[in-house]
Structure formats: structure tokens, C-alpha cells
Amino acid sequence: MRISSILSLTIIFVSTSFFLLAEEESKAEEKTYSEKLKEVYEKGLKGAKDKYAETVGDGKKLTDKSKEWMLKDIENIGDWEYKVVTLGTEETKQVENNLNELGRDRWQCFWVESNKKQKSFYFKRTKMSYLSKIPTGAILRIMTDFQNN
Fold first, then answer.
1. If you write DSSP's letter for every residue of 1-56 in order, what string do you get?
2. For the whole model, what pTM was predicted?
3. What is the chain's alpha carbon radius of gyration, rounded to the nearest angstrom?
4. What is residue 82's DSSP assignment?
5. Each residue of 82-118: pLDDT tens digit?
6. What is the pairing mode between strands 80-87 and 108-114?
7. Distances (CA, A) of 50 to 22, 61, 139
8. Helix (H) or strand (E) holding 111
9. To the nearest 5 percent, what fractions of the chain are helix, strand and coil?
10. Judging by beta carbons within 10 Å of its beta carbon (0-12, 13-18, 19+), is residue 37 exposed, middle or buried?
11. What's the longest Cα–Cα distance across the chain?
12. Spatial distance between the Cα atoms of 32 and 89, rounded to a whole number of angstroms
């Protein structure tokens, strides 16, 4: 619960900071950079504290929500998503742009079928899993904490 609370606070703080910075950008032109940074930090910290108090007040609900999210995320580890894109008589540059866009979205082409007028591209990518980026030992400690609660 402690790790999920810390992660939640960090995400809330960072997103609030960026939002507040963008909102006050036009007003703060006459202020120095350090003044702007201090204001954004203080507002973000206040927002994070408020959100933390609101969320942690539920206590057990936060743990249940975290556990549910974690189990769903674990299901995604090692799974694949697939996509088929059929391109017709587009110019080479347009096809290249389409394929580059799919590549930026992390799609990998693993097969191409060619018909007389069109080509079908088969793509795959791993499903997004945040937990796959966390060391296994840390995940095991978190799971132990969930079992103890």
C-alpha cells in the first residue's frame, strides 16, 4: 500500500505541476524562473497532499483498487496485440509514412501478404504492462503486502 500510495502521489504531483505550469505560463512572464518554479511546486504539493488525504482516507479501498489494477496489469505481461493493415494503391511515400507511424506506436511488422492491388501488413506488439518495468523482487514484496492485508 505504501508503494502504491507513493506512486500515486508522484503521478499526481507531476501531472498537477505540469498543468499548473501551463495554466500560469501567460501570467508569469514577469516573474523569474525560480519564482515560477517555487509557485508551481507549492501548488503541486498542496494538490498532492489534498489528493493523498482524500484517497488514503478510504484506506482499505485504496488497497483493493491497487490490488485489482495490479492483477489486471500482471495479466498483460507477455501478451501480444495484433493488427492487420491493408494498403492499396497509395504512393510509396504515403505507405512509408503509414508504416513509420505504426512503428512509432511500437507495432512490429512480422508478415506481409501481397495481392494484385493491395498488400496486407500484419503487426504485433506487446501489451503495455507497467509492472514489467519493476524488478521482480519489488513485485514480490508488494504481493506479500497484499496477502498480509
1. -HHHHHHHHHHHHHHHHHHHHHHTTTGGGGS-HHHHHHHHHHHHHHHHHHHHHHHH
2. 0.47
3. 23
4. E
5. 999 998 878 889 989 999 999 999 999 999 999 888 8
6. unpaired
7. 21, 17, 28
8. strand 108-114
9. 65, 15, 20
10. middle
11. 64
12. 55
